[in-house]
Amino acid sequence: MTFIIGLTGSIGMGKSTTAQMFAEHGVPIWDADAVVRKLYGVGGAAAALIAKHYPEMMQDGMVSRSILREVIATDPKVLDHIQTLVHPLVAADRAAFLARSTAKVVLLDIPLLFETGTDGLCDAIVVVSVPSDVQKSRVLERGEMTKADFDLILARQMPDEQKRNKARWVIPTLKLDDARIHVKDILAEIDKDLADA
């Protein structure tokens, strides 16, 4: 039996960094964002679908994230439509990852874990979290989006407190060394669960 961890957290909470910590312990990672980037890239299955419906979002044969954000900011319904096109492709990739996995523990790194109902696939949920002021400064310091972009993304995500309430484990990511200890403790607890099963 493979134990499936669902890792989630709102934008800027340190999810990718924490996923890497699990990877350092040999846990195979399925990264939803990386899969979407691949699907949006040149030759990607989602790029072909989006080109058919929204040719203005294409640039050099791939979906332009910046144009996509601009269009969604003016018409949020476009995102709902794009998600109906892309989610089945993402789900198929995730299913293939799980089917070929022989590891004792795997991790699904999914920003919209609860919002898409994918938490139902997981044996336990880990939520990464920091105070909202730290989250905001982290995101805006990257220089990839405006405050309006950030607010739009936040509005589509379940509030941090709700996520934390649904999690078996919460990892604060203010200090990376503390987060590493949490990851190690979580994996030890899962080992114990599996041994007792």
Q: Which terms summarize this structure?
A:
alpha/beta, 7 strands, two-stranded antiparallel ribbon, 9 helices, 2 domains, Rossmann fold, 197 residues, 14% strand, 5-stranded parallel β-sheet
Word description of this protein:
The structure is a single chain. The chain is of the alpha/beta class and about 200 residues long. The protein folds into 2 domains: about 1-30 and about 105-190, Rossmann fold (3-Layer(aba) Sandwich); about 35-100. The chain has helices at about 15-25, 30-40, 45-55, 65-75, 75-100, 130-140, 145-155, 160-165, 175-195, and strands at about 5-10, 30, 60, 60-65, 105-110, 125-130, 170. The strands form 2 sheets. The protein has a 5-stranded parallel β-sheet with strand order 2-5-1-6-7, sandwiched between helices. Strands 3-4 form a two-stranded antiparallel ribbon. The model has no long low-confidence stretch (mean pLDDT about 95).
Please provide a brief summary of the model.
The protein has 197 residues and is α/β, with parallel strands linked by helices.
